[in-house]
Amino acid sequence: MRATDRRPARRFAAAAAIAAIGLLASACSGGAQAPSVSPSQSRAQASASASAHAAALAKDLTITPADGSLNVDPAAGITVTAVTGKVTNVTVTPAASTASSTAADAVSGRLSNGGTTWRSDRNLSVSQSYTVAVTGTAPSGEKITKTSTFKTLTPAATFSTHIFEGYKQSYGVGMPIILNFSRPVTDKAAVERSLELTTSKPVIGSWYWDGDEQLYFRPRDYWPANTTVSFTGHFNGVQAAKGVYGTHDLTQTFLIGRSLIAVASTTTHRTQIYLNGKLTYNWPASLGRPSLPTPDGTYLSVEKGNPVRMIGGGPAGSAGHYDELVNYAVRFTYSGSYYHSAPWSVGDQGITNVSHGCVNLPPADAKIYYDMSIPGDPITVTASSAAGKWDDGFTEWFFPWSKFLKGSATGMAVQAGPQGSTFVAPDSLPADTATAPLETSAPGNYYAGSANIH
User: What is the rounded CA–CA span in Å between residue 297 and residue 338?
Assistant: First the structure.
């Protein structure tokens, strides 16, 4: 066979070899391809990655109480802390109202430490579920979120509180706020811190504990006339004694009316009546006889009646016994001292003391004072041979401000105004320039033989 006859065969063989190499290359390439991923799988993977990253960031925020906590002490409140970032917003949402929940369930708080700590302002409510939602930022600037849901304890023992003042009733410029507790209070500072006042005019004052179950508030000086006072006791969640909690808040609004101040002297035998800062009346009077002296002190009118039955002077049938219906009587001690009408002693009034301890007035004058009087009007007796007795009436004005302030468990004064009240250090207060008898009581006013005010 000639050589030219083999060339086509070699070209075919070469082509076949090239085709085989191509098939081999194709087979190798096909084996290296990655398996295809669906869009839904891709989204799930991205979401899981984002969730893991968010969970890692959330570790920078700490919420106390922790999520799922039960029987939480409401007095402990809520604290949120950022370890390396900052807290930007905290929202506390109480669960739907329950039988024990009140409007006080709403929780406010404030940031501190450069935005790294948030703390609730007041106690939480008892028997209440809360959800805390927190927003913060990481050092990288990324947003962080975290939540916690928990429930406070249901107390085994509770206390209740009663306020003396009536709703929108008017009282004199000396009237203290009087609170009575149903159980002895041992954590007095905690109870004080739960109290808030809102006053239409600026007021400085202090709380004073008279034993374990009674608490007073008194201004440093007499209330400004025509002041509206709103009291709120945030008692829900307050632990007043070990295991004893408040379950409800207490609110009351009352009025301080015009200024009416009476000053009676055992030596001049007169009583002066100041209305809205002006000496309006100067009446003859007869106070307690030497054997039954009207005791010194700055008291307050407690109640009045027309008539009032007065019984005393010894056993019935004895020489000094009396049983009389007395007109226009304004009481200022629990033991039975009154401003009242005394037609039987008119001849002695302005001259000598003949009463059984009351302030005797001419009938027409007694009626004028009776008609004007409301509870809380200051009444001062001076120059007596007898000392006044603490708690024999509303005696909160026996004490000077410095002594009254020592009755506070916190040792702090209270500054109140239209925006609410705050506790302040007593030495931060402005100097007191009030003078007796129109603006405040005199120091030592209840001492025997005092002659501080005439």
Answer: 14
What token pair was written down for 20? 């085989």
Note down the domain range covering 68. Answer: 53-151
Question: Is residue 92, in this structure, part of any structural domain at all?
Answer: yes
Q: What is the mean pLDDT of residues 264-287?
A: 98
Looking at residue 358, its amino acid is C
Report the catalytic residues: 340, 358
Rounded-to-integer distance, Cα 35 and Cα 22, Å: 23
**What average pLDDT does this structure show over 122-145?**
94
**pLDDT of residue 451 exceeding 60:** no
This prediction has a pTM of 0.84
Q: How far apart are CA 363 and CA 386, in angstroms?
A: 26
Cis peptide before 155 (omega within 30 of 0): no
Residue 134 domain-assigned (yes or no) = yes
59 belongs to a structural domain: yes
Please state, as a whole number, how many other Cβ atoms lie within 10 Å of the Cβ of residue 47: 10
Specify if 91 maps to a domain.
yes
Q: How far is CA 36 from CA 29, 33, 111, 448, in A?
A: 16, 9, 51, 103
